[in-house]
Amino acid sequence: FANQTINQYKIERKIGEGGMGAVYLAKDTRLERKVALKMLSDEFAGDASRRNRFFQEAKAASALNHPNILTVHEIGEFDGRHFIVTEFIKGKTLSQYL
């Protein structure tokens, strides 16, 4: 996905991967800031329960306001691909920290 643009987010590089999909470092071209863009993997996109769980994660995080919880900027779909956009926090991953 490097160098692709999804809405106003220009993807720079992949920064992680988990059970539901991959996370990319992207630039919000409208607000001129770095963001993390999490894409639901293709294998789960057609599964309504997985898709709902993906978006429930974003809704749960956005309902909380705490310095140790990242801010969700957007949830959406682009060309059939579901995504969550959050603030980008530079630092070690949890596995690197442990």
Give the total of beta strands: 6
Distance between the termini: 29 Å
Percent of residues in β-strands? 35-45%
- The backbone outline, from C-alpha atoms, is globular
Strand arrangement, major sheet? 1-2-3-4-6-5
Main β-sheet description:
6 strands, antiparallel
Gyration radius over CA:
13 Å
The H/E string reads: EEEEHHEEH
- Poorly predicted ranges: none
Mean pLDDT: 90
Structural classification = alpha+beta
Output the number of helix runs. Answer: 3
The proportion of residues forming helix, as a percent range, comes to 10-25%
Features:
98 residues, alpha+beta, 6-stranded antiparallel sheet, 3 helices, 23% helix
Layout of helices and strands:
Blueprint: E1 5-6, E2 9-17, E3 21-28, E4 33-40, H1 42-45, H2 48-62, E5 72-78, E6 81-87, H3 94-97
Antiparallel strand pairs: 1-2, 2-3, 3-4, 4-6, 5-6
Describe the structure.
- With 98 residues, this protein is of the alpha+beta class.
- It is built from three helices and six strands, in the order ββββααββα.
- Strands 1-2-3-4-6-5 form a six-stranded antiparallel sheet.
- A hairpin with a 3-residue loop joins β2 and β3.
- The termini are far apart.
- The model has no long low-confidence stretch (mean pLDDT 90).
